[in-house]
Each structure stands twice: as C-alpha cells, then as structure tokens.
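pasting for the record
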Amino acid sequence: MMTNGRRTLGLALCASLMLAGLAVPTVADPWNTQELRPLRATSFELGSQRVLAFFVPAEGQCKVTLMIADARDDAAPKPGSRLSLRIEPGRSATFDGRDGQSLRLACRAEASGLLTSRIKTLAASANDE
C-alpha cells in the first residue's frame, strides 16, 4: 500500500517523465537484472532512497539519467536530485545508495539497451533497521 508521500513523489516523477515524452516507469523486481530499452523508465527502492532510471542512445553511448529522492512515508516529500552520465557500450557504472545497496548500470552493444541490477554492497548493521 502506497503512502501519501510516496504517491506524491511517484506522481511528480511520472508527470515529469510524461512531460518529457517518456514512458511511465515500471517497478523492477528486487535484486534481479532488468534490461531497459531507450526511453523506457524503471524505478528502484534502494533502502531509504527511491531511484528512477532511464536512458537514451547518444553518440554511440548510453546517456543515463537517474532521479534520486528519499523514500519517505510522510505527505511532504523533499526535492530529489538528478544525475546524468554517459556509459560506453560494454562498460558499467554503479550508483551506491546510503544503506548498503547499489544500482549497477551496464550499457549494451551499440547502446541498444541498459542492464540494471540492484546489488548489496554492505551488510546492514542492526542500528540501521
């Protein structure tokens, strides 16, 4: 069940993507690898953060955009951040979240797709829960 804060954040992110002519995001299965096609968005929860990812092929590379915000339960979400990067085909980049979880992004040959994988990078301590 979505809380008002998550619903508001999700609606704001979806609205910004739709205004840019992008597809509505889908939620990825936890810890599984997913392949994105150009202009198709997906969202991930990385501990206390929510990440929305999409890419477009540009100059033979994957031009990736990540929109990052706190996953909050209250009705007043804080503004998030946007990170843009380019990944060469056959190479990957990793976004490390705060809570020992990361998002690995790998550009496919000819920038035809982007593999996304959620990975655990650190063991969570008992104090983090």
